[in-house]
Amino acid sequence: MAQQGVLLDQDQFCCSVCLDLLKEPVTIPCGHSYCRSCIEDCWDKDVLKGVYSCPQCRETFTPRPNLRKNNMLAEMVEKLRKTGLQAAPPPALCCAGPGDVACDVCTGTRKRKALMSCLPCLASYCETHLLSHYESPALKKHKLVKATAQLQEKICSHHDKLLEVYCRTDQQCICYQCVMDEHKGHDTVSAAAERTEKQRQLEMSQQKVQQRFQEREKELKELQQAVKSLKRSALAAVKDSDKIFTELIRSIERRRSEVKELILAQEKAQVSQAEGLLEQLKQEIAELRKRSTELEQLSHTEDHIHFLQVHRVLLPPAGDWSTLQSLAFFVQLEEEAFITCSCTSCDGSNKYPPVKAGSYLIQHFNDSYRRKRALSI
């Protein structure tokens, strides 16, 4: 606590121009104290004006006051220097840094950070130099705004006066002199009134944007939900189609095996029957060849009695066509060799030739798959 008090006293003995401990302190007529060199530099710039003012309270003096050393203040500053704390810099927050607005009154390389800007004065002030605008009756009426570096943008470029009026006709800020000159007869209002109106419009626009934003967010969520649902449906459809095609392939493979076994069984049965018929035909051919030889020999005999006796025995009986009938039966059997469909959707009455069995089964299962898909949808 003691150290904080010392630092506070040290700050009170700093020059408001150079922000360092007073060097050869002098007190001007208004009561404020400065380094002799600092106040002389400030007043040297006002020589042409002939009017000299205090950097803090802005009180003017004419003629230029004579500066005398403040001995009591000098002794106190000297004691403060002997404590070894004179090198302690002012608080960092008081110094203007990058991006800050520097005080226009402070001199030297260490200018303080400006807190407020005065529009009539077109200057920015730190906490120390701003006191004059709170204490001086003439400066209390000045309009102060938060410290800004764009003070020139608030001044009319034609009349060098403060922009305080808004011209609705030309959609621009103007000064009171412009109202009487270039913008005479235009629809003009004070900048504050136009700000109030624009603020109201801005709030309405913000409400509309917020409403539109909420609607779009709702639509976005609905669309995202629809996409998720679509993906789930597509995945389920893929799984169902894979299952159906897997079952169909298995069924086709099973039917193919059954058809193959049936064809081979029919082939075996018919080949066995055909082989029996071939054997019978060979025997009949052998008998017919033998009988043909005997008939040939009989045709050359001169014994009439022997011819007549043997002729009756060698000729085959009328209507003996067993071999031809067997052949016709085999052909008929081949034509009647059908494949019977045994699927669950048929009653077993559908029969198809072996040659057409493969194409029929493919067509049949395609039709069955289409019926299942129609029922699932």
Automatic annotation (TrEMBL):
Domain of life according to the entry: Eukaryota
Record domain RING-type: where: 15-58
Family matches, as SMART domains: BBOX, RING
Domain B box-type span(s) in chain numbering: 151-191
Gene3D superfamilies registered for this protein in UniProt: 4.10.830.40, B-lactam Antibiotic, Isopenicillin N Synthase, Chain, Classic Zinc Finger, Zinc/RING finger domain, C3HC4 (zinc finger)
Pfam families attached to this UniProt entry: TRIM_CC, zf-B_box, zf-C3HC4_4
Coiled-coil intervals, chain numbering: 206-240, 264-298
UniProt keyword list: Coiled coil, Metal-binding, Zinc, Zinc-finger
Protein's name in the database: E3 ubiquitin-protein ligase TRIM47-like
Organism per entry: Salmo salar (Atlantic salmon)
Encoding gene, per UniProt annotation: LOC123731727
